[in-house]
Amino acid sequence: MNRLNYFNPYDSKAGSHEDQLTRAYLVLLKHSSHALFTFIDYARSNQKTSGDEKPISLIDLVDQDWDFETQKENPVINTNCLLSVLITDSQLTTADSNVKPSERNARYDGVITFGKSLTIIVENKPSSSNVWFGQLNPSRQNLADDTSVYRHPIVLEWKEIIKQLNCSVENISIHSASPNGGGCRPAL
To answer: Which DSSP letter does residue 150 get?
Structure first.
């Protein structure tokens, strides 16, 4: 069942469940290239690479096919690279957490795939007190042997994501074709 179909919401999960937030955000990223590019740019600005790792590049991803999934258990991942992203309520130190394939059975909150180039696995923890860094490790099951896993996870904050989305809503160029003459709408 495709939960990222806008008209197919979760029926069995309360509105306060974190999966609802993940789903809503992924639906937005799927249907708004501006929101997606803002997300990628925010992730890129927080990425720490080491050794021979190449930073993610928005330009490299624009021409790729995009695919979005939520609540996927051990999906096939056969892209060139895999990046792990945590979205939570505060910045966390990830110095001691290296991302690496594990034997765990994984259910990813979100999976964003850009053609054969990059897979981003998203873990949503609205409360940073509930973070278990082992969840940022991809499952070895169904992970291609030649997929390069970025060693450092990216930590993003919900408050910054909301601030960026509010700035997008207020951006006059996005609303220039609106019936009210392009005036800014109030922040969400």
So the answer is: P
